[in-house]
Amino acid sequence: MSLIDLAAVSFAYGRGRKVLDGVDLSIEAGRNLGIVGESGSGKTTILRLLLGLAQPTSGKVTFRGAPLDPRNRPFMRGFRRSVQAVFQDPYSSLDPRQKIADIVAEPLRSLNVETDIDAAVAGALASVDLPPDAAGRYPHEFSGGQRQRIAIARAIVSEPELVLADEVVSALDLTTRIRIVELLKSLSARTTLALVSHDIGFVALLCQDLVILEKGRIVEQGTARDILSSPKHPYTQRLLASTPRLPEFA
Amino acid sequence: MSDATPAFAPLPRLRLTPAFLIGATLVGLHVVVGLLTLIWTPYDPTAMTGGRLAPPSLAHWAGTDRLGRDLFTEIMIGARIALSVGIGAVAIAAAIGVTVGLLAAFASRAVDDVLAATLDILIAFPTLLLAMLIVAASDGASLGTAILAIGIAASSIVARLTRILARRVLAMDYITAARVSGTGWLGIVRIHVLPNIWPTLIVNFALQFGLAVIAEASLSYLGLGAPPPNASWGRLLQEAQATVYTAPFGAIAPGIALVSLVIGLNLFADGLRDVADPTRRRR
């Protein structure tokens, strides 16, 4: 079953050149999707379109078959509850003046979700391996990895069907990165993930499907297994070849 | 985070710096004196209770003015007037300035450009000059007109600061996260923008408070502020000008009152920023 579809979507900022050109992609429930490309390939623009934060210049974005319409408030409320996001920079994605409890509870309060908010926040924090007393603290009291966990807790507290993640590990050190990958892997059992990243190795760890983006166009898409084992497009081959490896010593 | 973390985090300790305590004491003293004048003053402020231009004594702590009125009583009433002008002017500046600044921050680029240019033109006029123009254009000098004039003049500075601060906050990822969480624009202003710009605004309000006190004293000095028998510090300074060499205490006493309130407000503002900003608290 398809959650979100982009059909022949193009996008340009103002009257500038197209950032995206004729993009078709589909996010299926239960199948994690990785959107991979270098800087300037249009990854973040796709993410903004998928989140309903921008409207395509042409083409259509649909959620469960219905077009995303920001003026349709009841529809958007359901969409927001079903689709949440985690952002790249764990330092700027948490409001420094809010306690963690308020940060994590924001989707529940804004979307008027009828639930025990304290219990839901405690549950979300437990899901990302943070203790209950974290709720009473401020973001500056946490490390980068812990902040990213808090951002993930906020994204999952409303129990969405889809979590979109924008370069979630690129600002973290290697050991923290591994822990976040393990956390996302465990979360993918209860929600679908769409990961936007320049790091094909990272998304391949978590995603069944891949989309390779170059200069606003999809150059290759398919299952991660097929693309990694036999990349067809030269750009994909270059991306795979540029993945860092440890040197081999005799 | 270790397992040894206590179940409940201790409350953060507030930084009560010496400067903040001095500021709070100075401002608090003026507030107490100003409120006290509502129920009691040492003498009737309009009554001639001593000789003309008498020096400070036990009976008249700051001496008397050229009509023989008790200067300390007049300075006490001056504190009430200064605080009234400060509160009134800052309230007007905050109401107009924060509203216009937020509208500019959220507006389209074309509207923002027009608002920004208008604010820059208004700021180019000195506050006192703008206040004088507004007083001159009104029915005549009064305390209310002075408050309105100073408040309107200060609002452009508050608006520009609010616009800059709000735009900076709106560019942060947590605003995008709030939009994704379903928070509307009014909610974003209430939950994210105002709490994040508040510490800087409160410092600016306290500075504007001090500037309003100085502006009112200046207007009164020029005869455009609170009319007699209101004992504004500016009017006391103006009246003491003719006798500054023979009876300097007539200028020194209201001068000390004015300077101590403005310094107190500045120190108090810095301390308030520390209290309002959790990221500046000690862990």
TrEMBL record, chain A:
Q: What are the subcellular locations of this protein?
A: Cell inner membrane
- SMART domains associated with the record: AAA
CDD domains (UniProt xref): ABC_NikE_OppD_transporters (cd03257)
- GO CC terms on record? plasma membrane
| GO MF, one example | ATP hydrolysis activity
Q: Which family does it belong to?
A: Belongs to the ABC transporter superfamily.
Q: What PANTHER family does the entry give?
A: D,D-DIPEPTIDE TRANSPORT ATP-BINDING PROTEIN DDPF-RELATED, TRANSPORT ATP-BINDING PROTEIN
The name of this protein is Peptide ABC transporter ATP-binding protein
- Which species does the entry assign this protein to? Pleomorphomonas diazotrophica
Q: Source taxonomy lineage?
A: Bacteria, Pseudomonadati, Pseudomonadota, Alphaproteobacteria, Hyphomicrobiales
Automatic annotation (TrEMBL), chain B:
So where does this one cross the membrane? Answer: 20-43, 81-107, 114-137, 143-162, 245-269
Transport found in the keyword field: yes
Tagged with keyword Transport: yes
Matching Pfam families, A to Z?
A: BPD_transp_1
Principal localisation: membrane
Record-annotated ABC transmembrane type-1 domain positions: 79-269
**Protein name in the entry:** ABC transporter permease
Family note: Belongs to the binding-protein-dependent transport system permease family.
Signal peptide, first to last residue: none
List where in the cell it is found.
Cell membrane
Q: Which UniProt keywords apply?
A: Cell membrane, Membrane, Transmembrane, Transmembrane helix, Transport
One GO CC term of this entry? Answer: plasma membrane
